[in-house]
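User: quick one - fold this with 1,6-di-O-phosphono-alpha-D-glucopyranose bound?
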Amino acid sequence: MTLALAEIRTIATTPFPDQRPGTSGLRKKTKVFQQPHYLANFVQSIFSSLDGFEGKTLVVGGDGRFFNREAIQIVIRMAAANGFGEILVGRGGILSTPAASALIRAEKAFGGIVLSASHNPGGPDADFGIKYNISNGGPAPEKITEAIFAHSKTIESYRIVEAPDVDLDALGETRVGEAKVRIVDPVAVYQSLMETLFDFPAIAQMFRDGFTMKFDAMSAVTGPYAKAILEGSLGAAPGSVLNGEPLPDFGHHHPDPNLVHARHLYDLAMSDAAPDLCAASDGDGDRNLVIGRGQFVTPSDSLAIIAANAHLAPGYKGGIAGVARSMPTSRAADRVAEKLKIGLYETPTGWKFFGNLLDAGKVTICGEESAGAGSNHVREKDGLWAILMWLNILAARKQSVKDIVRAHWAAFGRNYYSRHDYEEIASEGADALIDGLRAKLPGLAGKNFGALTVEAADDFAYADPVDGSVSKNQGIRVLFADGSRIVYRLSGTGTAGATLRVYIERFEPDPAKHDIETQAALADLIAIAGEIAEIRRHTGRDTPSVIT
Ligand code: G16
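Assistant: Sure. Structure tokens for the protein plus 1,6-di-O-phosphono-alpha-D-glucopyranose:
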């Protein structure tokens, strides 16, 4: 027996009952992950669900939040003990989610482990998370996440190498047990990929011509990427990147680039001092926020506008094969797909559902209402990619964000859209609300609510057109005869109680009616949404906690 093999220890453990991955991996309070064996049980359950990785490469990195470094040391030692041949780790334990996806693909790795709770706050009293990505660079599909959960319920032991901590800050190679551990630059591969997709010289020229922007990295993972690309390669003025240093507690902020947690950017964009573009990304770098001077762009509109203009970027100049959006995302993109005569796919919430469509070449661009957009360049949504795409479109069209959005609405109509979140409500009330809705579904069609008539109502189910797998119970849809829509679902990413999400949408073709304030434009539907689901009775809340 070699010395390395002798260092492998098998540790006895008992199952934790709560390790079922949600919308995007396992997310829990940090203190839950810090319990003895908790993280190790889940990591072993991942490895036990996989076949054929002996001697192959695993990519490991995270968003830099509290417990990131400790978790990475555990993952490295367990990956070595389980038989991976090489472990690639982003320097400092840093890899944004899209950069991890890019690295898995570029290195032809077997898969990757990303330590992140995304846009959830970080710190000892906040959240932590872990997810497994497969060899295409994308989140593990349900078949694998369910296998991981099954293993986690019966686990009796895990394997780990006895070894000192790896120096995560020194580029280069070392060994842990029999595995090679390579610490790599977390930015380089991602940056080169972006250079192949976008017209960097044209964007740089736009900055030289006086274009101004503020990008808020929210003290999370995108700081190093944004500084290298925006201020480095593209020549945005120094100071264009705000909060560019990843901090373990994200500077006590909530790294969610929405109108609540990035309110300061919205206020700046609406002020006299507004730069041409305000943008932000989230904890792990996969979400994006885009606000032009005087013009917020909803994620759903952003997806539609990107789809309509992607051909202006060199990486997409041949056109796009199709567009996919999550079911609750507005149907603005559908109108673009119709005009371009390309496929439009409606999937359940969760980026993992886009993987098969991208791999099969059915779609090029994907997006979600939850501030996510991306393309076939990786298999995750990608915050900086979306912002670079916008910069490319702005450089090519030589118009403002506001003019581009207005012109888009004039050409395609406007989908007024809003999401109302009721966060941290009691799980019993949330379940009762959804059960109550399901019970009402058969009787809703044909019912009138004010001037609106329900045309159809169902619980969304998705049959994957590539592998035929079926995912049921993916959100309650109430569809009205005028094309309006209300969707209800419970979030799969929260870590306390339940979060009810209500998605409300109304289509307005008339450009003369494109200037109504969103909540006012949706007021009748908002009231109907409360009435149908009896939101107040089930949640005890009069108003949502977050409106986006
Ligand atoms: C994750 C998923 C997204 C999903 C979002 C919201 O994003 O990757 O696909 O749309 O959560 O999910 P839910 O409505 O279930 O909370 P992220 O940025 O948190 O990884």
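One thing worth noting: The chain has a mean pLDDT of 96.
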